[in-house]
Design brief:
Blueprint (H helix, E strand, L loop, with lengths): L1 H19 L4 E4 L10 H6 L3 E9 L2 E4 L12 H14 L8 E7 L3 H13 L2 H6 L2 E7 L14 E5 L7 H4 L2 E7 L14 H16 L4 E4 L5 H10 L3 E4 L2 H14 E3 L22 E7 L4 H10 L11 E6 L10 H10 L20 H6 L4 E9 L3 H4 L11 H10 L4 E5 L11 E3 L2 H6 L5 E4 L15 H15 L4 E7 L1 H7 L3 H24 L3 E6 L3 E2 L3 E6 L4 E5 L5 E2 L3 E6 L8 E4 L2 H10 L1
Parallel strand pairs: 1-2, 1-9, 2-4, 4-5, 5-6, 6-7, 7-8, 11-17, 11-18, 12-24, 13-14, 13-17, 14-16, 15-16
Antiparallel strand pairs: 2-3, 10-21, 12-23, 18-23, 19-22, 20-21
Helix pairs in contact: 10-18, 16-18, 17-18
Length: about 600
């Protein structure tokens, strides 16, 4: 059975091993209290294991107190034999492993028994680079030299030692509670932070690795100690600690690209005047935390955050607590809740007229713009009618039959025959086009992200498309989607979420500017759903840095905001179902 335990956790090790190389050493405090001592921490990536030792009846027992001693739970049974077996099977990694033996009984007899036992495992200790550190009850520093060289000591003071004594010190450990009362929630007080920094700096002047014991055991604490340069992070949750710290490089993003904030005039905002044009902007997956992250990374504000009329929509689909983009986009497009994966059909699968088709009958010009492929779920909901979002060729065929005035997006590869649109090659060509209907493909397949070279294409397409629609001198409806906030949410990629959100704000800026210059234009900004359960536990406004965290790689059922600007904008405040947006828009246009 022991062999199976070893193999099981070594398999886990192969998955998580790469994390440990980027981290301070994770110290598994009171490791013997783990469900599977040694292997649970080792597989997680911890490379320092703390073991409380009692010498009793000529045996070295592992326990937290003397009353908790169990005859079978010895140092040999729980740690030395399993390590030897794993080494013989060649499943141990060739990297340092530190066993911190916290002696709970008198130092001299306990060490004498320990030296005798360790002699049996000399090959293991030397061959596998296993370091033995003596903590707890230990001899005076002047006596360190009396013990074999493979034994080092956990020095628990900042008083200086002689050079020969320092040679036998493996690390310095101090009681955290002697310097700070911070409990790992919120932040250090300034005074506590300075004390803790001074302690760490003094310990490092001795050129020895440093550890606090009795520390708070939380994500905030792990990160704080990591940033302060603590060499061993003390934890009772090695898997969670390694996973959290190892993921920091992918979850911390310092923004370098900014959206210039536009200050709206508010001249027509909320005015009880007729609505002529509607610009509906959908940030796919763009929940409140996503918006907050882009806002904070952009210096604390966006054009979006200037808007005053704000509501919330509930996003559940007709058949699921949590929607997908197809059902959410369709609910907004046809005014009815439908099932997940549906494109332009109701919950029974029947075609249902969408808002573009309703308005086309009233001589409105209509446009669909996206950073997704034009056959993607959200844009397709505004021109296509198919029972499943995966029916890409059928959705593409619906674009041939649609009466859209303008489209822009990726996915040119799906259209082998000539489309009934005049295709242009640049965003600038859209505004200058004289044809009745215009199409612009941003890519043959998927559209590149802002981090991968898309640049200013979305705001340029929006600005030139609005100019094209304005020249028609008839009312219009435009749906503009920033699709890749959602994509990066699925990837749990903070840099992508923030950068795509800021790029979305540039498109919003163009829409709000247009509304100020063209009275009668209503701008609505919302999302189809939230993606990834995104949160932003920490960051730095001055350095435009965001730390993000995630609960899932999928969508959530969290409500998402609706921002509105222009005449009748106050009609979009409150909390309501997503399909109500359709009815609110048509009520204003009628």
């Amino acid at each position: 059975m022991k062999v199976y335990f070893i193999l099981f956790y070594i398999v886990l090790l192969s998955v998580y091993h790469s994390y440990a190389q980027q981290l301070p050493i994770i110290h598994s405090h009171n490791d013997y209290e783990q469900q599977v001592p040694l292997w649970q921490a080792y597989a997680a990536g911890a490379r320092s294991i703390e073991i409380d030792l009692f010498y009793k009846n000529k045996e070295l027992y592992v326990a937290h107190t003397q009353e908790e001693i169990v005859p079978e739970r010895t140092l040999e049974n729980l740690y030395l034999k399993p390590l030897e077996e794993a080494a013989e099977m060649k499943v141990l990694k060739k990297e340092p492993l530190q066993l911190v033996l916290d002696l709970k009984t008198t130092a001299k007899p306990t060490l004498k028994a320990l030296m005798k036992q360790l002699k049996k495992y000399n090959k293991l200790i030397e061959g596998q680079d296993i370091q033995i550190i003596i903590s707890g009850n230990q001899p005076q520093p002047e006596d360190f030299k009396k013990y074999p060289s493979f034994i080092q000591f956990d020095y628990q003071s900042l008083e200086n030692l002689s050079p020969s004594e320092w040679e036998r010190v493996g690390m310095i450990s101090l009681d955290y509670s002697a310097y700070s009362v911070w409990n790992g929630k919120g932040r250090f007080t300034h005074e506590d932070l300075q004390r803790v920094k001074q302690v760490i700096e003094k310990a490092h002047r001795y050129q020895k690795p440093f550890r606090f014991w009795a520390t708070p055991d939380s994500k905030s604490a792990w990160k704080a100690f990591y940033n302060l340069g603590v060499d061993f992070i003390n934890t009772n949750k090695p898997f969670a600690c390694v996973n959290y710290l190892s993921s920091l490089p992918n979850r911390v993003y310092e923004n370098q690209v900014f959206s210039k904030v536009y200050r709206p005039t508010f001249k027509n905002d909320g005015a009880a005047t007729p609505v002529k044009n509607v610009i509906l902007l959908i940030g796919d997956g763009n929940g409140l935390s996503q918006i907050s992250s882009s806002t904070l990374a952009n210096g604390g504000e966006l054009t979006l955050t200037q808007l005053k009329n704000i509501g919330f929509i509930k996003t559940s689909s007709a058949d699921d607590f949590t929607t997908d983009s197809a059902a959410a986009g369709t609910a907004i497009a046809i005014g009815k809740k439908t099932y997940n994966r549906a494109i332009g059909v109701d919950h029974l699968g029947a075609e249902s007229i969408n808002i573009c088709e309703v308005l086309q009958e009233k001589n409105f010009n209509t446009a669909v713009i996206t950073t997704d492929e034009i056959t993607g779920a959200t844009p397709a909901a505004f021109y296509a009618h198919q029972k499943d979002r995966g029916m890409t060729q059928q959705i593409a065929a619906d674009l041939y039959k649609s009466d859209l005035t303008l489209f822009a997006g990726g996915g040119a590869k799906y259209f082998k025959k000539q489309l009934p649109f005049n295709l242009v090659n640049t965003p600038e060509a859209i505004a200058n086009a004289k044809a009745a209907r215009i199409g612009y493909f941003m890519a043959d397949g998927g559209v590149p992200s802002t981090l991968n070279g898309r640049g200013e294409e979305l705001p340029k397409v929006v600005a030139h498309s609005l100019e094209f629609l304005k020249q028609k001198e008839t009312p219009f409806f435009a749906m503009i989607e920033a699709a890749q906030i959602d994509s990066y949410g699925h990837f749990n990629d903070v840099a992508g979420i923030v950068s795509e959100g800021i790029d979305f704000d540039k498109a919003i800026t163009e829409a709000v500017k247009f509304a100020d210059e063209n009275p009668g234009t209503l701008v609505i900004v919302t999302a189809d759903h939230e993606t990834s359960g995104f949160s932003i536990p920490q960051g730095n406004l001055e350095h435009h840095t965001i730390e993000g965290d995630f609960t899932t790689h999928d969508h959530t059922a969290t409500m998402v905001p609706v921002f509105a600007y222009g005449p009748q904008a106050q009609g979009f405040t409150g909390v309501y179902e997503n399909n109500e947006i359709y009815h609110k828009i048509l009520a204003l246009l009628r």
